[in-house]
């Protein structure tokens, strides 16, 4: 078996098509909506292994501008990491990581990714560390009545609604100065796929709130705006859900949250390289958790 390692090859339509088949086979991931909106650009960088012209393993690097404690850095996120079953346990992923890491060291300050228990051991062996993340859960009492005339759900299939998302994704403030990110195309990927049913447009404020009714609580994943609002400014929206508690899946340093209960994240595992340093409680924003 001859393995060919390739990177920066998405201009090769045949190789890109093979990568898409690999991604669908491993993750059930169809990039169609992302491609059709013109969002797949050369910032999404593959490091892949091919056998007989077919992609059999890959690591993709997607750099983001990160705000951490008010300063800006460039961090590399690892995405679509996997190997077809028949090629596993042959050292291919380690070789891909070495190649990707060489590129990252030249262009970014550190590396991070999200995974689950099934893959955690691999990143432990590579020397990644896994800090605990905690999000804020707060008691909530509305001071106003819901006004449904001031917000509506967005439909990602609508060109007009997508234009709103696209504009705000490119002009937004970071949701947090403690830990925020700027990567419009990755944000739009998350809005087109996992969060597509959770998008609310507050029209007179020109704000998108990514939120869902999580049973006993309201869960807010992101607030996308050119100027981040105070929670009291969007109370007319929050009160619509009639919940006594709200969970914020991002750091709330810009949102006047009082007496939060800190809840550990358990549905995914954050891995970071040694360069990551952030004291105290934090959570990476939900809309970067691809």
Automatic annotation (TrEMBL):
It comes from the Bacteria. Pfam families: Acetyltransf_1. GO terms for molecular function: acyltransferase activity, transferring groups other than amino-acyl groups. It comes from candidate division LCP-89 bacterium B3_LCP. This is N-acetyltransferase domain-containing protein. InterPro entries: Acyl_CoA_acyltransferase (IPR016181), GNAT_dom (IPR000182). SUPFAM superfamilies: Acyl-CoA N-acyltransferases (Nat) (SSF55729). The lineage of its organism: Bacteria, Pseudomonadati, Bacteria division LCP-89. PROSITE patterns: GNAT (PS51186). Gene3D superfamilies: 3.40.630.30. Residues 1-153 form the N-acetyltransferase domain.
């Amino acid at each position: 078996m001859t393995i060919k390692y390739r990177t920066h090859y998405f201009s090769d339509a045949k190789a890109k098509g093979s990568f898409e088949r690999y991604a669908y086979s491993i993750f059930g991931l169809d990039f169609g909506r992302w491609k059709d909106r013109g969002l797949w650009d050369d910032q999404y960088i593959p490091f892949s292994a091919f056998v007989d012209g077919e992609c059999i393993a890959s690591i993709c690097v997607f750099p983001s501008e990160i705000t951490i404690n008010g300063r800006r850095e460039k961090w590399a996120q690892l995405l679509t990491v996997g190997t077809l079953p028949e090629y596993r346990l042959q050292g291919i992923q380690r070789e891909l990581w070495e190649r990707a890491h060489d590129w990252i060291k030249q262009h970014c300050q550190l590396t991070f990714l999200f995974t689950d228990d099934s893959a955690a051991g691999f990143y432990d062996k590579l020397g990644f560390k896994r800090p605990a993340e905690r999000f804020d859960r707060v008691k909530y009492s509305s001071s106003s009545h819901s006004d449904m005339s001031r917000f509506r759900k967005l439909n990602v299939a609508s060109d007009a609604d997508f234009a709103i998302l696209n504009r705000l994704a490119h002009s937004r403030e970071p949701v947090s100065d403690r830990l925020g990110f700027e990567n419009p195309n990755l944000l739009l990927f998350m809005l087109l796929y996992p969060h597509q049913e959770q998008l609310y447009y507050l029209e007179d404020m020109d704000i998108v709130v990514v939120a869902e009714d999580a049973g006993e609580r309201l869960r807010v994943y992101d607030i996308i705006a050119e100027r981040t609002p105070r929670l009291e400014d969007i109370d007319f929206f929050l009160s619509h859900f009639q919940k006594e508690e709200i969970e914020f899946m991002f750091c709330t340093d810009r949102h006047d949250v009082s007496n939060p209960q800190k809840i550990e994240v358990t549905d995914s595992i954050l891995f970071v390289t040694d360069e990551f340093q952030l004291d105290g409680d934090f959570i990476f924003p939900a809309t970067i958790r691809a």
